[in-house]
Amino acid sequence: MNLAQKILTLDAEAEAELQNVSLSTLKRRQEADAHADRMREEQQQFFEDQKRKETAELTKKLEEDRQKAIAALRQKMKAFDKEVEINKLAEYLLSMAKERACR
């Protein structure tokens, strides 16, 4: 083999190796991009799950607070009704006492 053929052979081998490296680099870049996409999707899913969980917890707490407020309001309404009944009874007794006193 003469020198020119050796140079051409080495040049062809170098070109083939550069192409292999280029393809390998492209493949690794694509794998890295795919991995980054999966990581972004996982992170997005995590945040969405966390948001749903926190929303559910907040909704539950608000419902509990609402039920407590309704129970407190009902107690106040009962107390008010009793107070009104006592006031009516007192007015009735006073009116009866006045009638008896006036007779």
Radius of gyration: 44 Å
Q: What share of the residues does DSSP label as strand, in percent? A: under 5%
The helix/strand order is H
Distance between the termini: 149 Å
Gross geometry: rod-shaped
Structural class computed from helices and strand pairing: mainly alpha
Roughly how much helix do the residues carry, as a percent range? over 70%
Instruction: Find the count of extended strands (DSSP E, 2+ residues).
Output: 0
Total helical elements? 1
| Poorly predicted spans | none
Q: How would you characterize the largest beta sheet?
A: none
Average pLDDT value? 90
Could you explain how this protein is built, in words?
This protein is mainly α and 103 residues long. The chain contains one helix and no strands. The protein has one helix spanning 3-102. The longest helix is centred in the middle third of the chain and has 100 residues, at 3-102. It is rod-shaped. The relative contact order is 0.03. The mean pLDDT is 90.
